[in-house]
Structure formats: C-alpha cells, structure tokens
C-alpha cells in the first residue's frame, strides 16, 4: 500500500459551551487570565445527556454517511480515550452497534489509553495495519473521544470535549512520512487519574507544563537527528510548512513553538535570521533546567517566533481555542482547524505534529498533503467537517449552569440506576444521546 494515511476526517463537539471571559469573572480570576493568560476563547462541555460514547457514535456514523462509506468496508477500528467509563469494556465495543447492524462483526482493534496520547497510539496502529501483511484491503477507522473536566480550581478553565474520527487507508491526501518520527517516553506523575471514583485527574499543573516542553525538545532533537542522517542536511523549522501541537490551552502552544525557535537558534539553523539569533544568543549557554525556568527566554523567544507563529501555527488554533482541551482529540482538532482554514493551499506541504500524553508519552511525526480525489479531497474534508457551521450553531450557557452540570455529573460518574432528562433540544438531528443507565450499569443511547 502506498501513501498510507488519513483519507477523511469528521469532528463532533457538544453544542453547550461557556465563554472563558464569563468564567473568568465568575471564578474571580483577574481579567484576562483565561482569555489572554491561557489564550482560550470558549469551552465546550458535555451536558448530562452526552458522554464520550455518545459523541463517538455520532462522529462515526456521520463520517460513514458523509463520505459514503459502507460500514462493511471497515476492517479495523481503534479508539483513543482517557475518559474511563468502564474498566474492562472498551468504547470500541459500543461502536460495534453501528457495524453489527450492517452485518460486519469482522473488525479488529480495541481502545488505547495514556492521557492525551491514546489517539496517536490508535492512529499508528491503524496505519501500521494498512502497511502490514495482515491488511485485508479494507479501511481503518480511528476515533479520539474525550470529555476533559477538572475539579474546581486553576485547571478547570482548561477543560473541553469532542470526538474526532479519521478514516485510514492507502492513496490518502494526508500521508505519513514515517521515517521522520521521534518519541520521548518517561515515568512522571504530572497528570494522572488514580481515583477511580472521580472523573477528575490529579494534576500538577506546573510540572505538566515543563514535562510537555521537555518532551517537545527531546522529540524535536531526535527528529532532527534522524532527518539529518537520512537526508544528509540539517532539519529546521523552515522544512515544515505548519506545526500542529497537542493543545491543552493556546498559551502552551505559543510557548512550544517559541521553544522550537530557541532550539533552531541554538543549533544555528538557517530558519532564524541574524537579528533573531542575536536576541537569543544570551540564552544559548543556559542549562536545560535553567532554560525552562527563564521568563526572559520565554518572552524573547516568543517575540522572535511571532511572525513564524502567525504563518505556521496560527491557522491550527481555531478549534482548540473555541472548544478547549479535548485530550486525545485535541491534536487532531488542531489539525482539522488547519484543513478548515487552508485546504486549498495545502497540496505539497508538510506538517509536523506533536502529540503529548501526561505520564508521559510523546511523539513528533510528519505528514504530507496532496489534493486527493473526491470524496477524499482536502476541499471535501473541509466541507464535510463544516467547522464554521458547527461553531456558529453552539449554545452559550452561563458559568453557573456549567458548574451545575459538573456537580450533577460528579454524582452520575460511576453511578447506576438513573434516567437522564432525555432532553435533546440542543442537539442536531443524527446526534446520539444517553437516556438511561440501568441497575446493572448498562448504558442506553437514543439517536435524535
Ligand atoms: N491577564 C493576562 N495574563 C494573565 C493574567 C491576566 N489578568 N493573569 C494571569 N495571567 C497569565 C499568567 O502570567 C500565565 O501566563 P504565563 O505562563 O505566560 O506567565 C497564565 O496566565 C496562566 O496563569 P498561571 O498563574 O500560571 O495559571 P495557574 O497556575 O493558575 O493555572 C495551569 C494554569 C497550570 C495550566 C492550570 O490551568 C492547569 O493545571 N491545567 C491543567 C494541566 C494542563 O493542561 N497541562 C498541560 C499539559 S498536560 C495536558 O494536556 C493535560
């Protein structure tokens, strides 16, 4: 199989959202902390009738329908998620309802979990399958689905929710440059979910930021090294047209790209002009640790990076800023933003992706765009996703209502024997929603 990669995408996020400006005021945070400090505009959340299973049912069915894919044509289905609803039964098995109805039960794959990285693990599994001797000629399907909710406190505004589906196969408009890939994995307690009675993580915010940036540096250095060995020339920011980052909140994305600029400057790469190198020279001798602590370096490198950020990163930021951290779906929502914004200009371009999951696991990998043929063309993908339409039709709620929902969900998490309001009034036709969890914890969904 040639040019294996992403043939098609679709995205779903809940229609309910809260404005970060309103949340800021409600929480008594200083004005601008969430909007400028974190760089976030708005945050989506699941109402009591939505969860990671309903969102993934919705997005899978939508993708199959809109691209005209016969459910029998799916041979592997992989889900990435860190939202635990059941410690044994995979989300993938819930999705099998769609395929069983069409007589297809011959589908490999289960769920992958490690914080926000599970979607990338699922994606690699599917791509590897299509490239392997066990491939049977059918499509792979990857689903990233998460609801990111935090306990009251500074992490709460960095929540979000969404599901993304990616169709995988050969002759793709978005193909993997599999040789340009590097990982960094280690044992750290930066963000984890040890309390199985709660949906909320235990999080060391500052540590998670540093771990993210250290993993980024390590992946970038390894990737540069591998590229140089293969191609016999230096790799720099100039060799990729766009950079897509896992996006817990936009400020970290700004800092991440600035970090790559700092790396390039230390490596004396051609991507940084003389003026930029001069500004960054005073920081070249900092140790790794010092460089993560230096506020001056952060400021100067973001300044030097600004024009490059505007060209190579800004087009990827729309959905993460509007929807929030979608955990496993976050990186792919940033990628979807790029296709939404730039689909007609992407052919021939290269994008570098950075996936990070706390704990920690991280990979940087490279994708290459071609126009592709209908229905798997970049223009049609943008059309099907209808990002602008979905953002516009959302329903803003006040912070009090958002918090009331979280309180109710704290009770419902892990509970049995309840029926939901079954209120689907905010949902678009075709959306799945939760109706009941019975006395044996079995979950039931309906479709609007
Ligand atoms: N106007 C403008 N900016 C402001 C204002 C204001 N009024 N007030 C604060 N800020 C800035 C701060 O200077 C800071 O920016 P800086 O880092 O560039 O200096 C930013 O807003 C955030 O303020 P902090 O005081 O650093 O925020 P706090 O520590 O309260 O919380 C954090 C931020 C740690 C990110 C928290 O939201 C969190 O723990 N989130 C979850 C963890 C997370 O997402 N980690 C990322 C990687 S792991 C993952 O993906 C889950």
UniProtKB/TrEMBL annotation:
Reaction(s) catalysed by this chain, per the record, are:
acetoacetyl-CoA + acetyl-CoA + H2O = (3S)-3-hydroxy-3-methylglutaryl-CoA + CoA + H(+)
Q: Which residues bind CoA?
A: 208, 251, 255
From the UniProt record, give the pathway where this protein acts. Answer: Metabolic intermediate biosynthesis; (R)-mevalonate biosynthesis; (R)-mevalonate from acetyl-CoA: step 2/3
What's its EC?
Answer: 2.3.3.10
Q: Where is the Hydroxymethylglutaryl-coenzyme A synthase C-terminal domain?
A: 174-448
Q: Active site annotated at which positions?
A: 82 (proton donor/acceptor), 116 (acyl-thioester intermediate), 246 (proton donor/acceptor)
Q: What EC class is this?
A: transferase
GO BP annotations listed:
acetyl-CoA metabolic process; farnesyl diphosphate biosynthetic process, mevalonate pathway; sterol biosynthetic process
Q: Does the keyword Transit peptide apply?
A: no
Record keywords, A-Z: Lipid biosynthesis, Lipid metabolism, Steroid biosynthesis, Steroid metabolism, Sterol biosynthesis, Sterol metabolism, Transferase
Record-level Gene Ontology MF annotations = hydroxymethylglutaryl-CoA synthase activity
| Stretches assigned to the Hydroxymethylglutaryl-coenzyme A synthase N-terminal domain | 1-173
Its biological purpose: Catalyzes the condensation of acetyl-CoA with acetoacetyl-CoA to form HMG-CoA.
Concerning its family, UniProt says: Belongs to the thiolase-like superfamily. HMG-CoA synthase family.
Q: What is this protein called in UniProt?
A: Hydroxymethylglutaryl-CoA synthase
Q: Which organism is it from?
A: Trema orientale
């Amino acid at each position: 199989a040639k040019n294996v990669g992403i043939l098609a995408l679709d995205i779903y996020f809940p229609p309910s959202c809260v404005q970060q400006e309103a949340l800021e005021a409600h929480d008594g945070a200083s004005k601008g902390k969430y909007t400028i400090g974190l760089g976030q505009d708005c945050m989506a959340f699941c109402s009591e009738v939505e969860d990671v299973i309903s969102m993934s049912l919705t997005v899978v069915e939508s993708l199959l329908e809109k691209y005209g894919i016969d459910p029998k044509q799916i041979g592997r289905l992989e889900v990435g998620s860190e939202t635990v609803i059941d410690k044994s039964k995979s989300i993938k098995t819930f999705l099998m309802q769609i395929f069983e109805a069409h007589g297809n039960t011959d589908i490999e794959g289960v769920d992958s979990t490690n914080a926000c990285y599970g979607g990338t693990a699922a994606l690699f599994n599917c791509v590897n399958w299509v490239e392997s001797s066990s491939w049977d000629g059918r499509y792979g399907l990857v689903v990233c689905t998460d609801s990111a909710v935090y306990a009251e406190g500074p992490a709460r505004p960095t929540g979000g929710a969404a599901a993304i589906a990616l169709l995988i196969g050969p002759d793709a408009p978005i193909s993997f440059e599999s040789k340009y890939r590097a990982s960094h994995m280690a044992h750290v307690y930066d963000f984890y979910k040890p309390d199985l009675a709660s949906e909320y993580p235990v999080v060391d915010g500052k540590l998670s930021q540093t771990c993210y940036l250290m993993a980024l540096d390590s992946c970038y250095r390894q990737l540069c090294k591998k590229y140089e060995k293969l191609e016999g020339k230096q790799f720099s920011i100039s060799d990729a047209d766009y950079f897509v980052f896992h996006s817990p909140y936009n400020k970290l994305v700004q800092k991440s790209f600035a970090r790559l600029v700092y790396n390039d400057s230390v490596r004396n790469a051609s991507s940084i002009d003389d003026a930029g190198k001069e500004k960054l020279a005073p920081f070249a001798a900092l140790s790794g640790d010092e460089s993560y602590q230096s506020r001056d370096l952060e400021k100067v490198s973001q300044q030097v990076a600004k024009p490059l950020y505007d060209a190579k990163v800004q087009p990827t930021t729309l959905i993460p800023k509007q929807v929030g951290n979608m955990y496993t779906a976050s990186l792919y929502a940033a990628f979807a933003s790029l296709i939404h914004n730039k689909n007609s200009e992407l052919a021939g371009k290269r994008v570098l992706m950075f996936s990070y999951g706390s704990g920690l696991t991280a990979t940087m990998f490279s994708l290459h765009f071609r126009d592709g043929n209908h229905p798997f063309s970049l223009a049609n993908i943008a059309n099907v996703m209808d990002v602008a339409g979905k953002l516009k039709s959302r329903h803003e709620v006040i912070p009090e209502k958002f918090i009331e929902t979280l309180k109710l969900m704290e009770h419902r998490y892990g509970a049995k024997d309840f029926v939901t309001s079954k209120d689907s009034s905010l949902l678009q036709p075709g959306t799945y929603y939760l109706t009941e969890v019975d006395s044996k914890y079995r979950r039931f969904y309906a479709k609007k």
